[in-house]
Amino acid sequence: MKRTAILVPAIVLIVLVGGLFPCPPVSGASDQVLLRLSDRREVRLHEAVYDWKSVKVVLVGELHNEKKHHEIQLEVIRALHNTGLQVAVGMEMFRRESQGVLDEWVRGTLSEAAFQRAYYDNWNSPWPLYADIFHYAREKKIPIVGLNVSREITRQVAEKGFASLGEKQKKDLPPVSCAVDESYRKFIRRAMGIHGHQGMNFNNFCEAQILWDAAMAWHTVQYLKAHPQRTVVILAGNGHAWKPGIPKQLEALSGYSCRVILPHMPGKSDRDSATDQDADYLWIE
């Protein structure tokens, strides 16, 4: 009886401590603060990562030429990897047809000079902005997945609309459509603004954006079907990462739930304006 009397309080203490500290720190995770939009509560990175682990896709938005945003993306990848999760990185920055080059890079069989040439063939932002992400993936053997489609096709859709594509061009695309409704137009105006696109038909521009969203979602789903043990971290421009972008297309295609992390951007995704209809977390700088 005496042993039981000692044991019961010990069990109670363990349960209480477990309730107070349900999320032990992740090895190597920073103490970064994020705003969880579902309840407007500030949480630490090592807390948020346990929520991210519960889904198959995590999207991290960016402005392409903002170095800080790529540092955020690397923090998210590193935190998930350090939990023991099998992570892959899906990238807007590479076309699906360039997958062989990405595989060679991760395997370590391609020189940096050769990989940079492939990078600039796919993307035009300066290499140093993304270099740390690519090097980390290579070091940890984390697969990188090209998600994008031909620039020529998206450029043509932006200029002339989806209907201008020929049958051969459409065969080169995933089986997606470009149905643009008023809610999507409102989202694009808010997320990206219409400035910078003067002279371009706004509906065509929206069709190009939704083509990107749908194609990247489709390629992500195909990758996960082939690699169900993986969790994909998608790196994409803010206009694609918001919930009405790629996440909406993912849900329509597969039912996959995801988490969306956006950088704090005054006037667009900030404490005052962002809701859980836009994203799940804001990265507070």
Automatic annotation (TrEMBL):
Haem-binding uptake Tiki superfamily ChaN domain segment(s): 51-250
**SUPFAM superfamilies, per this entry?**
EreA/ChaN-like
> What is the superkingdom listed in this entry's lineage?
Bacteria
What is the organism lineage in this UniProt record? Bacteria, Pseudomonadati, Thermodesulfobacteriota, Syntrophobacteria, Syntrophobacterales
Organism encoding this protein? Syntrophobacter fumaroxidans (strain DSM 10017 / MPOB)
Q: Give one Pfam family.
A: Cofac_haem_bdg
* Name assigned to this protein: Haem-binding uptake Tiki superfamily ChaN domain-containing protein
